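Team,

Forwarding the record for the chain on the shared tracking sheet. I've put the sequence and predicted structure together so nobody has to dig through attachments.
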Amino acid sequence: MYEALLIAYRMSHRLAAALICLAAAGALQAAAPAGDTGKEINGVCAACHGDYGQGGKRGEYPRIAGQRAAYLKDQLKSFRARKRINLPMYPYTQERELSDADIEAVSEYLSAIELPTRWPEFKDSDDALTRLTATEKVMIIPRAEGDLENGKAIYQKECAACHGKDGRGRGKFPMLIGQYTNYLMKQAEAYVKGERPHDEEGPVGILNRLKAKDIQDILAYLTSIQNPDRQ
């Protein structure tokens, strides 16, 4: 009888200790910086969008680094709810059961990444890894052909109210500068065809009223203002 009581006593102490450890682990996890969680989640995104969110394959995968957090959150939730049709995104938002907290963390992490538009200047003491890491973060979109004056006029009249005069976005409206031109063109075509809903109500929006040349001129203008020093 005494031995049974002793065993029960020891087990209760071990259980209490285990519960204390679990509680401490949970507290540590809760105290972990949101950026760490966002970086961990981005490890999955990096397979397509790159380690720094710079996109890849010449715009097949868009740049998401530096993108507005509110826009990223909105789009991830749209993918998860299948309001925005994009089959490659479903495994990462639905099958993975991406939570609101995960969406918040990875969106904030990505929006904080800065990709310079100038090649870095190195010191003689910088090693090869430092140089490689710095150059991999540089994001320069080649100038697109088009009438810059016409593109500027149309953009400032039709697009700036939502996407900002500098193309850096506003609220849930995305940043456009620094994005792959062919990706933006693909999305514009999807809007015109009604394959991706724009923000206007009804099947016809601003892009449907523009000529193909006007859209190309807008994209050319956006590539001309991607360097802040030239805006």
